Amino acid sequence: MPLLITGAADAGLMELPWDIPLSAWPEERIAALPRGLSRHVVRFVRHGDGVLAVKETNPEIAHREFHMLRELERMEAPCVKPVAVVTGRQTSAGEELSAALVTEHLAFSLPYRAIFSTALRRGTLTRLIDALSVLVVRLHLAGFYWGDVSLSNALFRRDASEFSAYLVDAETGDLHQQLSDGQREYDLDTATTNIVGELLDLQESEDLDESVDPFDIGTRLEARYRELWTALTSTETIDANVPFHVAERVRALNALGFDLGEIDMQQTEDGTAITLRPKVVDAGYHSRRLMRLTGLDVQENQARRLLNDIDEYRVVREDRAGASADETFVAHEWLTHIFEPTVRAVPRALRGKLEPAQVFHEVLDHRWYLAQAAAKDVPMPVATASYVKNVLPTKADEQAVLGRSLAEMTAELPALTAEVGTRYEVRDPYANDNTHAWGGVPEPEEEPEPTVTRVSTRIPTQTRRPLTAEERAARDAEAELGTLDSPDED
User: Fold this and answer.
1) Is 283 helix (H, G, I), strand (E, B) or coil?
2) Is residue 44 domain-shared with residue 140, that is, in the same domain?
3) What is 257-269 written as a DSSP string?
4) Is 141 in the same domain as 226?
5) Within a domain: residue 247?
6) What pTM does this model have?
7) Which helix (H) or strand (E) holds 327?
8) Structural domains counted in the chain
9) Same structural domain, 131 and 185
10) Band of the pLDDT at 486, cuts 50, 70, 90?
């Protein structure tokens, strides 16, 4: 059977060494990224400007998982992006190899084991469980039965002070119009069992703090899941002031990061009250609002933090101007005067450590610490310079470790103020393509561009005046005497 690649229209996939077992692929093809536990061989592979995750499995499972992930992606569920399925693999000797499922590597994501280290902050584990519980709720709302909920089958990205979880293994999952209570309960039971087992493994290898009880953490996901599920789906009966209660329900869901798209309102049998039940609930309320205002595409908690900073910027601006301003105008001004200069201040060599929105969030936190220690407000450019110099270089594997005392961080504040000033130099917003991409706008080179000059190797002909009759006669006489080696022609 010839090699068959089904999925993305990327001819470059044919150039990968599919005739070699994935475990033996050459090192120059492999990206050294942390991997989680898996029952299959999984490798991160360099491809073009990006990184792909390749998993060996049988053809039926590969095709099923590919179509499952495509459907979840269409529903905007948090999951990895499927790229292709590769079948018909054979070695040069004709030996049959396993099929492969290809997905995009989720940038800035980590498996849960890579987050644990000696510098682990207190409470990080509970934030991981909370992120996983939100992921399970979102998938259940979409009608997805996971079948194997665990920390190992998810990837985590920093999302402001929290984490966001993404489905990475849909092999055991199935999609339904609506999940039954039994299906949801089975997922919760599986989650508790798997999480306790994973934490016991970490405890055995001494990678888990001694104060952590794996069984207490294992039950946290169920408690958080039920709390969120009730808030999103519960039915309530209202006998007065219906518009107020509906507005309060919408506001409460927005605070949780969800939009209420549709709601069922039904009058009770006696006609004295109305029952309310959310019908269509979509996650991403804050991220969609930030996208509308600024065009920035970030995660939910990051969007919440950035929106708060825009609100603070608006208050300060209106106090100074003495008049209110349109929210869209203020958001654009904040983008060009605050956000973009902050992320541009990060050297290119350090931009791979964190997402731009995460960097901005951490600069805000760093600025607060500096202001507390200095007992005065610290300008954003100074806080950014201090963060880039003292905090960002220490980060490894996306760990948010300050690593320096407040005294050390604030000791050079006067010098930084003198060095970088207290205001950003704002660029002309019309001088670039305004894509707001991370490093998307080319920065000017430090050295001037070389000047190209054209130089001819041909010796130019000298311009001479015609010879007079006397000069011609003298030249002919010298030639007859042999004193001229090569007389010029007229």
Assistant:
1) strand
2) no
3) TEEEEEEEEEE-T
4) yes
5) no
6) 0.70
7) helix 327-334
8) 3
9) yes
10) very low
